[in-house]
Design a protein that fits this description.
Layout: H1 6-21, H2 42-52, H3 56-63, H4 67-75, H5 82-93, H6 96-103
Helix pairs in contact: 2-4, 3-4, 3-6
Length: 104
């Protein structure tokens, strides 16, 4: 049975840590710029719904949210969060998505 060289193992670990700090890593790193969510105003929410020719309750039903939420967005009482703003922007680009969402 061979004796372990603990000092050598520790030095190897410290060298690996130093290399990682210097950017010498075998894993890929990707820098991604954080983008702000699309601005979704009350007027834009109304425009998206009007483009689809649906009422507030139907729009809410298809998005699986409360009609009061849609009403609050359209009246400017509250704003859609980042995820909802992205979803509404996608629906605005491709109105068929609303039916696909409703079918899920």
């Amino acid at each position: 049975m061979t004796k372990r060289n603990i000092f050598a193992e520790l030095m190897e670990g410290l060298d690996a840590l130093e290399g990682a700090r210097e950017g010498k890593v075998t894993l890929r790193k990707t820098e991604v710029a954080r983008k702000a969510p699309p601005e979704m105003t009350a007027a834009k929410v109304r425009a998206v719904r009007a483009k689809l020719h649906v009422s507030q309750p139907v729009f809410a039903l298809k998005l699986r949210t409360e009609p009061r939420t849609i009403k609050n967005w359209e009246q400017g009482i509250s704003k859609p969060n980042a995820q909802a703003a992205i979803l509404l922007s996608l629906i605005d680009r491709d109105p068929k998505l609303l039916d696909e969402i409703a079918a899920l």
